Amino acid sequence: MIEAGFPITSKGEFEAVKKISGLGLSAKICALARTNNKDIELALDADVDRVHVFIATSDLHLKYKLGITREEALRRAVESVDYLKSHGVEIEFSAEDATRSDPEFLKQIYSAVAEAGAHYLDIPDTVGTATPEYIARLVREIVSVSRGKIVSVHCHDDFGLATANSIAGILAGARQVHVTINGIGERAGNASLEEVVMALKILYGYELGIRTEKLVEVSRLVSKLTRIPVQPNKAIVGRNAFGHESGIHTHGILRNPATYEPFPPELVGARRWLAVGKHAGSHGIRARLEELGFKVSDEQLKLVVERIKNLGDMGRRVTDKDLVEVVKEVLGQRSDDSRVAELLEVSVTSTRMGVGAIIRISIRGDIYELYGKGMGGVDSIVNAMEKIPLLENVKIKDYSLGIVQIDGKIGVEATVILETQNGIQATASSIKPDPHWAVAEAIVEAINLIMARRGG
């Protein structure tokens, strides 16, 4: 089930929910509504399969937000369910702020809406204050008055417990759980789809019918569309979730990945990668050098490891580009020996029609001019760069921007990850005053690394 939106919010929200309802998806579509007829009628007009109706039940919300009594809240809840029942849609009911409500009143209101015809009884931890123990106890109590209806949990992450609380609810008898991709949501967010799915699958043996190999791809799509970055160390889908830098870890990974991975990265559509940095050991750096096409002696490896650690001690985030420059210096090779691409010009324009970028790039002496448009300057740059002929079988897998200070001046550090169809990855970064130039140059540097690895 996809809860597609809250139609009363705006005309655009209503239209979006209605369009999603008309896509013919395999999932049922749900719309959110308060316990009033105007909200409910608009939700029904969106042609959804289910309406999720809610009203606050905690004394705090009843007094300061709604200004009504418990009896009035109960009446509104039952009348809303009665009204929906006459329209032949699935009905879900939530008692907002349930985990801070009087448990006896909760049982009364859930029992009443179940008797009135609600199909799903959702327990929201609206401000994330519940513990797994309390969620489990509350779920068992609501199941006892549910009249056989499905009990659900909706957990927020204010204390970092949303995933744990969701699983505790399921183990206690809930058969539906509300989740969001990347855990996006109000304040600290909601329970993360990818975390809940993989924990239930791997740790508890649940079969959920989820195509887990799509999790990373969908995570990146949602991040791009919402313009909310995924933190690198985010569980399951973060860039570093299957990245290994520590020398102890990489040594184990190279012998048997199970030593430091709870499940294979391919299960969620990710790839394992060995990071280089101050914590890297000789085994990991040698393996990464071989992936990049370099073979070194033990003595040369020792020099490379020492210089990489020095870069890390300086606070640098070491990329493949840095590693290649170091190893070429150790091997006595020119750093520009294998360059096939060079960035010549970056131009970004913004009008009422949108944002566009023009890139001029030289590839083996041939000049290409590429155009891209997107939701912002950086997005337009990336979309333009994806049209480079050399990227026909290469994806810009990930990119990030950060503010850095060098010699008292502020700059932008762009880091990108490129990946070929057969899994070869290359990371590169660029620091420039202009974020657009930094992103474009980092992509060009990563292209040069991949082309060098392919032998041009």
Can you describe this structure?
- The structure is a single chain.
- This protein has three domains: 2-178, Alpha-Beta Barrel (TIM Barrel); 251-331, no CATH class; 341-453, Alpha-isopropylmalate synthase LeuA, regulatory domain (Double Stranded RNA Binding Domain, 2-Layer Sandwich).
- Helices cover 39% and strands 23% of the residues.
- The chain is of the alpha/beta class and 456 residues long.
- The mean pLDDT is 90.
- The chain is built from 15 helices and 15 strands.
- A seven-stranded parallel beta sheet has the order 1-2-3-4-5-6-7. It has a three-stranded antiparallel beta sheet with strand order 10-11-12.
- The chain has helices at residues 11-21, 37-45, 59-66, 70-85, 103-116, 132-144, 162-171, 193-203, 215-226, 247-255, 282-291, 298-313, 320-331, 377-385, 435-453, and strands spanning 2-5, 29-34, 50-56, 90-96, 120-125, 150-155, 176-178, 243-244, 273-274, 341-351, 354-363, 366-374, 394-406, 409-420, 425-432.
